[in-house]
Amino acid sequence: MLRKSLMMKATQLSYRNQKKVLFSNLSFDTKKNPLIVIEGKNGSGKSTLLKICLGLVKASSGQVELSERVGYVPDSSEPYFIGMSPQVFFQFLCVNLSLPESDFQQRLEGLRAKFSFHHQLMTTPIQSLSLGEKKKVMLMAAFLLDPPLYLMDEPFSGLDEQSLTYLSEKIKEELTKGKSFVIVTHGYQDYLSDPALTLQL
């Protein structure tokens, strides 16, 4: 099983911004808890915690050990991939993953159908997409990467009912394959199986 190898282990993480301490002494291990849900109010540090885990933000104290390959789904409001269309973005992924194009395209078309991501959107600049459409692009990219670990920031937000149902099923499927998830969510817990660990910030 994949979980025999390191995925992510966080030890005594603390973070303080210029105004206050957002969280302190957080520890978790995806080998022990393959599904971790992070909850909390706006501004409580949920997204910051994910970015610390990825090395995008430096913790005030503590450390994170992380697998080499991670599927990251950022919050849709962040200005990623400005000027790039989904089609160009996915072509970039295909080249960087060194995958046979026919296999990659087959997987992409399967995900596009499951997420009801219409073909005409493939040539639309990502910054012009709705929040839900941006979320679908990031989710498809993460699943195309097929990593052992997924870090997802509000993955259910903005999705239509069909996509919500599929994402819920896909997460369960990936868990049965030995994958792990750390998910920031608010109000969508019903779409997740009972988490092994919930962190309340």
Please describe what this structure looks like:
The chain is α/β, with parallel strands linked by helices and 201 residues long. It has a single domain, classed as P-loop containing nucleotide triphosphate hydrolases (Rossmann fold, 3-Layer(aba) Sandwich). The chain contains five helices and eight strands. A five-stranded parallel beta sheet has the order 5-6-7-3-8, with helices on both faces. A three-stranded antiparallel beta sheet has the order 2-1-4, with helices on one face. Helix 2 packs parallel to helix 4 (131-145) and helix 3 (101-114) crosses helix 4. The longest helix is centred in the last third of the chain and has 16 residues, at 161-176. The model has no long low-confidence stretch (mean pLDDT 89).
